[in-house]
TrEMBL record:
UniProt name for this protein: DUF1629 domain-containing protein
Domain of life: Bacteria
Organism phylogeny: Bacteria, Bacillati, Bacillota, Bacilli, Bacillales
Domain Immunity MXAN-0049 protein per the UniProt entry, residue ranges: 57-180
Amino acid sequence: MKYYRLLEFYKRDVYFYQDDQKNQVKSYELESGVSSFSIESIYYKVDKLDKYVNKYDLLPSVGAPLVSLKMKCFLEEIANNACEFFPAIIVDEKGEMNTDFFALNILAVSDCFDEQKSEYDMTANDPKKIGRITSIYFNYQKLGQEHIYRMSIRPSMIVVSEAFVEGYRKNKLKGLLFAKEGSRLRPEFLD
């Protein structure tokens, strides 16, 4: 089974930021693969809520990914054991709110970064820690049967299976791109 790096796209250049001041849990805590948070909802902030925001099934976000109800249902079907969801409240600078999305906590974390094939630099502060990644390849022996993973080396990087891509297309979901293994700076995307 092949895997791809998941990237989001949106009509304009914007991010929906998890609001760590309003939330019970910090954004980085939802990148750790830990479950069982008892969270009523997760707040996000954005400069403005676009009229077309609900046409997307995944929004570009900092913190836990924001997914639509349609995407949530798809993920529950294909990757139920690897995900949990929390109601999201998106608030813009004018105070307008959208409660149509869910924060996605991806529980499956994999050490699938292939250090032999990938190209990267080590950080200046810690020569044992990977810094900038210029090309990325997966170690398929470290990927199990799940269809969605966070990469342990970079928890913000999400890896999905070929079956995930097929289901995404079949369900006519919107807001994702799938990058093939290779250059991270100039990725090659699936058609």
